Structures are given as C-alpha cells and as structure tokens.
Amino acid sequence: MIQLSSLEPKTIWHYFEQILEIPRPSKEETKIRNFLTDFAKKHKLAYKVDEGGNLLIQKSATPGFEKKKIVILQSHMDMVGEKNSETIHNFSQDPISPKIEKNWVKAIGTTLGADDGIGIAAQMAILASKEIEHGPVECLFTVDEETGLTGAMALKEGFFKGKILLNLDSEDEGELFIGCAGGIDTIAELKYKTRIYPNRHVSYRIEVSGLNGGHSGDEIHKSPGGNSNKIINRFLWKGSKKFNLRLASFEGGNLRNAIPREANAVFAIPESEIAGMEIYFKEFSEMLKEELGSAEPNFKTKLVKVKKSETVLSKKSQERILNAIYACPHGVIKWSDSIEGLVETSTNLASVKFIDGHKVRVVTSQRSSLNSAKTDIADRVAAVFYLADATIKHSDGYPGWAPKRDSEIVQITENAYRELFKKKPVVRAIHAGLECGLFLQKYPNLDMISFGPTIKGAHSPDERLDIPSTQKFWDLLLEVLKRIPEEN
C-alpha cells in the first residue's frame, strides 16, 4: 500500500491511511465504530454510543483553555461504495487501495471515501494530540449519512453538550458553508408482464459507461445530459418505434445520491431490422458524444450480440416503462434567485432495476433549499410514474439548513481564513444535503459552519482528494479552535 503518511500534514494523513483499511459502507459502520472506540480507550478518552449507532468521544481542554465554549467536531463514519464495472471489490470486506496522482489522492477503481474519511482523520488527530490548543471538544461520528441520514435522525437531545458545531463534511477549500438543501427520495415500482421470446429475433446488449457521475447534489449541474439511465432509455424508446425493439432487461445506477455513470439493457430485434438498428446505434453514439461534448470526455457506448433470453416484456408493459423513464425529469429544476451560482431545486433519476415479482424499481432523489419546492418536484416525479400505473413511495426526507450570515462561528471562521491565507473565503450555501438541518431539529440553538478540503468526483470512482488543500483545511481548523470564545 502506498504510504500516505509521508504527506503533509503527517498526523491527518496517518489516520486517513488507517481509515482506508477499514470497510465502512453505509449501514455497515460496526468496524469503523469499533476502531474509533478502541482509539478512545487507548487515549483514555470518554466515549458513548447512542441507540442509532452514533459515537461521541470527549476530550478535555488543554491547559489555559478550560473556560472556552465546548466545540463539537462532526463527521460521518460511512462512505459511498461505487466502483468501475471491471473492478473487483467488496466494500463490506476489502480495504480501499489509494494512489497518488500529482496533487491528488485517489483510489484504484473505487470511491476513495475521503467523503468523509478525511473529516474522521482530522477529529482523530485532534483527539490524539497533546500539543494542539483547544477548549473542551466533543467529536461526533454519525452513521448512515450517505443513504438516509438515519444517524442524524436518531440523535436525541442531550447526547452532546456543545452549542458550536463544526461540520467537517464539505468539499471545496476556500468556501465556508452556512446552509444546505433538504431532500427526499421518490421510489416507483412498475409491474410488467412478459411474453415468450419472439421468433426470428436476435438479442443485443447495449452498454453506456465512462460518464462522470458524481454527487447528485453538489455536481447535478455539471453535465445535464450525463445520466446513463436517461441515455439508455432514449435509445430503447426510439428503437421500439423505429425497429420494433423488444426489451428483456434494464439496469443502471446504484445509489440514490449518485448520478448514474453506467447502465445496460438487453433487447431483441427482428432479424430484418438488424442492419438498420446497428446503423442507428452508431448515429446515436455520435449524436450523444456531440451533445455531451467536453463535459463528458470519457463517455462510451457498446453494442454486442448476446444469447437469447426466455422472455421479453409485453409491448404494453414496455411502453409504460420506457415512456415513464423518458418523461421523468433529471437535473437542475431551478437556480436560486438570491444566491448566485446556487442550484435551488433538482432531481436525480438515480437507478433502474428489474427486481423479483415482475417489477421494475426506479429510484429518484429530489433536493431543494425550499421545503415547498422540494415537495413540488417530488410530486411531479411521482405524477409521471402514476401515469404509468406505478406504486409510489416517498422517504421521510430531511430538512434544509437556513443560512445565518451573521452567526458567531461564521464570523470567527471567516476572519481566521482571511488572516491565515490573506484572502477572503467564499461564504455560501450548498445544494448537497448535510446533517446540519437535522441537528437543528433536536438542538435549535446550535451555531454551525461546514468546511473541508477540496474533494472532486465524490460518490464516483473518480473521487479524489486535493493534497495541498488538506493542509489548508487542517490549518484553518486549528486556528478556529484557538479562537473559540470563552463562556459568558
């Protein structure tokens, strides 16, 4: 394994390297939590675990800082497990294999888990240090942030004491986040009927790969057409009209909070239509490359003959499913009128899966800074699938975090950044969902800010952590801890 601990700052990279050894997909945080509790025991630090699986480790103030306000440092223990189709990796068992490319740390064929492993590493470095100056510290490690925010939802009043919270789960160095979007999932299940595989037909498999994918909140605006499910469905929809294409299977995307990068479908085509279909496939591929342009430089399509399946979908079922997916919106719905460059409302057509019981499950996720707009786009997505006789379920959702530009911790962090790096940071809200909105429901008096190093391609195998920005993140965190005021 490459030695990340040779990078600066050594202490944070030392712990990040250890974290990469521990499998920690969402809802499987036992190993990483045990690792952290063993760490607390080793350093003689008080800790506790709540009913939801969240962990709190407490550290007393360094001498001379005892009167300062308690600060909560917060990260999440889980990571998104996404890999390239050719990569063999079991996220429940295998460690992450990192590599260094110029100024970036990446993983080999998988997500890196810097979201939010680097936040955990920063907390551990502070907890272990005998030299860093700080007041009383509570380190909160939550579970299942990536798939449902269930750890933050499970928090109860009184689990921690602090009223200042530093969320270490942002991905743009130089930007301080003071608000985030709320979100909800909309899941549609469509029943289908099958027919015996038709005579004088040939089966093909179409594949789409190489798309950027990424975080369905923070990166939803970067390539509006770069959704593998929408691309595959577009080909199938047109093919059913032009060549009497018959669908056998469709699978694309994995996670609700990741823009789908890869998808495939198997279909049957009349022997008499093969030549025309293959010509159209080439035209379709070139058309998409032109449409996606430089935003998706690695976009690929593939068409291969495969063995015949036993059945195909009935024409009526196929029409309902393809029409619904085609009509389902994806991408930015509205930009903010009040904050330049901020996506206000969006929706992600995350995954399409054939499941047991002759059903297709389509998972989508919606986000908005406005609760009413979040509900509206979720209802619009549901309406599309209701027209296709689908069964619809909405998740409980989670609230946004309304910005407070004049808060004490915002002023402290902004001033610290300006004096450390001789430039003003960008202070803004983020379209991604953070746990902060849920914390406010249980702890309405929390004063919060979120910052972190630069992470690109989160939730995709292209995830990468910027090395120089990690040093700046660390320097800012230590400076903010020094500047925390005393209790009144």
Report what the structure shows.
The termini are far apart. The strands form six sheets. This protein has a six-stranded mixed β-sheet with strand order 1-2-6-3-7-21, with helices on one face. The chain has a five-stranded antiparallel β-sheet with strand order 16-17-18-9-19. Strands 4-5-23-22 form a four-stranded antiparallel β-sheet. It has 488 residues and is of the alpha+beta class. The chain is built from eleven helices and 23 strands. The protein has two domains: 261 residues, Aminopeptidase, CATH 3.40.630.10; 211 residues, Alpha-Beta Plaits (2-Layer Sandwich), CATH 3.30.70.
Name of the CATH architecture of the largest domain: 3-Layer(aba) Sandwich
Please report the first level of CATH classification, the CATH class of the largest domain. Alpha Beta
Q: Unreliable segments (pLDDT under 50, ≥5 consecutive)?
A: none
For the termini, the CA-CA separation is 49 Å
Q: What share of the residues lie within helices?
A: 25-40%
Radius of gyration: 24 Å
Shape, per Cα inertia axes:
elongated
- Mean of pLDDT: 95
* CATH level-four homologous superfamily name of the largest domain: Zn peptidases
Question: Can I get a quick summary?
Answer:
The protein is of the alpha+beta class. The protein is 30% helix and 27% strand.
